[in-house]
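Supplementary Text 2. Reproducibility record for the structural model of the 126-residue chain.

All settings were left at their defaults, and a single model was retained for analysis rather than an ensemble. We include the record here because the model underlies the residue-level annotations in Supplementary Table 4.
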Amino acid sequence: MQHPLTVLIADDEPHIRHLVGAKLKSAGYEVIVATNGGDCLALAQEHRPSLIVTDFQMPVLTGFEMSVQLAEDERTADIPIILLTARGHKLSEQEIASTGIRLLMNKPFSPNDLVNQVQGVLAPAA
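Retained model, structure tokens:
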């Protein structure tokens, strides 16, 4: 029996964590939740999730700062990341290339679209 893929969600907004978590669980994913970038980094190192969905602006570490630290750790460098941003933050191609960020999504977003994007990013690994 194949184990479900695990998605780590990091967002400091409780309603976003709940909404994204519920949608991903209903799509068959295991879900781990973090409320800030520091906790997300620690959970990613401990659990090595299949994918991370993280907010850009969070306490302790931003989603981008956390992504850079994950990329610098050989244990977590290959974890793909979907970065959510409410303020239209732009990252250069060089910044994105230095991380595991596979996709930037603007808030507000469609939860169904996010699930589709998660499935698309994880499809090669499935």
